[in-house]
Amino acid sequence: MAHDHLNKTDWLTPFLALILWTAHFMILWGASIIFPGHALARWIALAVTLAALGALVWLWRASKVRSVFSVPGLGIAVAGAGVVFDALPALIG
């Protein structure tokens, strides 16, 4: 009997991408609660968003994702869209 029952899908990469998205959201939410209406909250949002997008690019390269049409690629793409969506209210005003 062959051992074909092993799952070779990389689940760690999308998990890390979604954790990064969650951390980004929590930091932006915390900044908006601590500094409501201040420019400092917007600067924090900009810095954290750029850092999160950079971390997602690093995760894409470190995981050697070949396409967005894979589980790791889709996880990173969804997390990237979420990071940008989370940052829009803070950056637009």
Structure description:
The chain has 93 residues and is mostly helical. The protein has one domain (12-92). Helix content is 74%, strand content 0%. The chain has three helices and no strands. It has helices at 12-34, 39-62, 71-92. Helix 1 (12-34) runs parallel beside helix 3 (71-92) and helix 2 runs antiparallel to helix 3 (71-92). The radius of gyration is 16 Å and the shape is elongated. 25% of the residues are buried. The model has no long low-confidence stretch (mean pLDDT 90).
Cα end-to-end separation: 62 Å
The helix/strand series, from N terminus to C terminus, equals HHH
Helix content: over 70%
Total number of beta strands: 0
Shape: elongated
Number of helices: 3
Chain-averaged pLDDT: 90
Radius of gyration: 16 Å
Unreliable segments of 5+ consecutive residues = none
